[in-house]
Amino acid sequence: MVQDYSGNVLHKGHSKDGLYCVSPPLQQVVSSAFVGIRVSITDWHRRLGHASFRAVNHVLNSNKISVEVNKRHSVCPDCEMAKSHNLPFANSVNHATRPLELIFSDVWGPSAVTSTYNSRYYVCFLDD
């Protein structure tokens, strides 16, 4: 039984294996809660953490979830970038001969979350 602070009974249910099953009254059921939209397999690919389309199909079929069938899957730009193997720059022929002769740097930011000292940018220095 579920009661509010004043003692009014809000719900009643029966105990089964230590759990209480509470069913809402039929007049409170909203039909829109049972309405869904069909989502593309590309959307599911993103929702499932960019899993392979074979894995996405397996998960969806195992759970009897229907999707928009598109025979040609569009290439996911995020996966394409993550799997790229080409370096953005050619390998350098010249190398530094002593410490601090050639330093590379990279700046990242602004971050939506600030650091402990309220910094929003990150800079990295690399000695060749």
TrEMBL record:
InterPro entries per the UniProt record, alphabetical: GAG-pre-integrase_dom, Retrotran_Ty1/copia-like
Any single Pfam family the record assigns to this protein: gag_pre-integrs
Domain GAG-pre-integrase span(s) in chain numbering: 18-84
UniProt name for this protein: GAG-pre-integrase domain-containing protein
Species for this entry: Juglans regia (English walnut)
